[in-house]
Amino acid sequence: xxxxxxxxxxxxxxxxxxxxxxxxxxxxxxxxxxxxxxxxxxxxxxxxxxxxxxxxxxxxxxxxxxxxxxxxxxxxxxxxxxxxxxxxxxxxxxxxxxxxxxxxxxxxxxxxxxxxxxxxxxxxxxxxxxxxxxxxxxxxxxxxxxxxxxxxxxxxxxxxxxxxxxxxxxxxxxxxxxxxxxxxxxxxxxxxxxxxxxxxxxxxxxxxxxxxxxxxxxxxxxxxxxxxxxxxxxxxxxxxxxxxxxxxxxxxxxxxxxxxxxxxxxxxxxxxxxxxxxxxxxxxxxxxxxxxxxxxxxxxxxxxxxxxxxxxxxxxxxxxxxxxxxxxxxxxxxxxxxxxxxxxxxxxxxxxxxxxxxxxxxxxxxxxxxxxxxxxxxxxxxxxxxxxxxxxxxxxxxxxxxxxxxxxxxxxxxxxxxxxxxxxxxxxxxxxxxxxxxxxxxxxx
Length: 445
Fold this sequence. Notes:
The protein is mostly beta strands. Helices cover 8% and strands 27% of the residues. The chain has three helices and 22 strands. A hairpin with a 6-residue loop joins β21 and β22. It is globular and about 65 Å long.
């Protein structure tokens, strides 16, 4: 199910915990199908965190200038059955400040805090703020010496003390028990892939100005979320996706279990933030990218394809944007719905042929605010930039994601500078701290 990571190990005699900061994850076995979540900040740093004596333990995507992780990805170990053995020793990551440094994860000291604090959080940032150093990869999900590697500031985000020590702790215990019992009932013939992440709030940071001479260094997340992909080795009917989200970091929200079946999620096999399906369905029709809200997207035998009503018009649709074709064939897992150099969306099917299919909504918006033509996705088409036709005669540059921090050509807007007009007649944003900029798609001012 997964491939062992190829990580360079430097043995630290005084400490077994290590990590490696790279341009690409060398530990993709912690992601379902070795595929990391998409649509994340392209400026974030990828860290493989491991123990010299245990091998790789988890992967972290870290925002340097926000000084919090976007997520940590890990695999549940059913041997973790107790919450005892917690340590209060925390660690820092030298390679974030000095990429060529041979030391990976080191114990936090008064000396190295001053040395490394420019590009990562330190424990002093949390003191007297009312926020805990909240683990994304839970400390209680490891055992023995393995817990050492979870106690790093690159795996921690500010969580309200009451929330972290009550609601979130209860949720971690509930999830641990549920997964342990489920894996045991399946005789360990399954793997639970987990991603726990944050949604950074650009308007709230710690330490607060009232208590610190060096304030507002660490971003407080507005949401904390966990997603589980449970994959059985032999019985696909036992597979499921589980997601828990918080509307605020002080609230508790129930778990949502989403079986892998039609009309549940845009892509039922992808780990990440899984959205609760809306009433009816939302789908991409062959005639254009628009909601199919009046009726569900269902297979109709008399038409030999999936159909739904959009207003009074019966039109073809795909119930799962990147998995199911217009005629109901399932795309191959390694060949989802995309253009693949053509001017229409298609995929290779598990039946051994190919068929037209619907793209995800978030891949097909141009910078003029219009959605791309339904048979002409955002792509380079031999050029050095992303573009698409918005109707049969006009084209424009386009974005690969439709959100407040998505710029053209896959770039991410700079933190605290979301997509907007910013005094211009077009949408744009800064994409780094050197004031590089790019066009973008959504007005967020």
